[in-house]
Amino acid sequence: METPGSQSSLHRANLERVVRAVRLAGSLTQAEIARTTGLSAATVSNIVRELKDGGTVEVTPTSAGGRRARSVSLSGDAGIVIGVDFGHTHLRVAIGNLAHQVLAEEAEPLDVDASAAQGFDRAEELVERLVAATGVDRTKVAGVGLGVPGPIDVESGTLGSTSILPGWTGTKPAEEMGRRLGVRVHVDNDANLGALGELVWGSGRGVKDLAYIKVASGVGAGLVIDGKIYRGPGGTAGEIGHITLDESGPVCRCGNRGCLETFTAARYVLPLLESSHGTGLTMESVVRLARDGDPGCRRVIADVGRHIGSGVANLCNLLNPSRVVLGGDLAEAGELVLGPIRESVGRYAIPSAARQLSVLPGALGGRAEVLGALALALSEMGDSTLLDGSLSAVAPAFT
Hints:
Low-confidence stretches: 392-397
């Protein structure tokens, strides 16, 4: 038994600090581990050697700043995590290992009018199929991250009112999937998971504070502060879509008038083009037409960008993020939308905050949320089980 403050407990704490740093980053050089953990280079070297001998980490040659270095990552067979993303029209599942490598991934259409039970059935079947395809031992499942397009009550885990999946309101997605899979499930909304995905794998790498803006059927923001998702006490932080732009504007689904969402979300924007382009448009097709030079679509995309920029300017004035990442189909418009966003930020944000801000398109496209679900599962798992060589303490493996 380790005594608190003893040499053995300090060593154990240092082991866990190194494992956590590597787990969250995917891979780090020993110098990066030292900077991240605050441990000396000699201590890190000894710990990495011990973890390598125990099979917890793998060490591979690399280079950093033109010099030879050693990259440290968790062992590829140390365990796996599962990401599940429920979207407006899709279900996507990914399987990854603890070294941040995606082993399998698949998406399929999801009927927005399907019941929650049908959605969970589909997700369970897809998870089972992908795990079987990877051939990974099921006892190695360390956790599941689950994304849903709506607000999650932090205390109860209940999905709040959502117009995107209306039949799901009041359900407890993490509890239901956990019961079906027999493993611990962590749930969050799609904007937060998009932020996590871009932070770990995409356009947010290297920063500790950013806002991920997703414009689709609704408008939401995932906020990262000091490297962590900020959810607020009730789990509703980041509802940028309900910033008021015009008190006399269109009535929003939230009951207010002139919310940002009423000027930018697909269901409000697409009807603007029906008289000239007919019905059946999607945001994806509008972006494609805009990139091909269609003047009407280019104008609509630019207007949407300026409105988003007004919301981003408010974020700049309140939180002063160093980076904003635009996700969803709209990000494919590139400078057609990013330019107007920057223009509005320059006009409405405090000059010092605007100068420090970079606005980038998401690098992950439609994969951001499911990769964010993997990142959520990775961030929530404990390190002691890895050091003890047993994931069974986390939760029973699903059968």
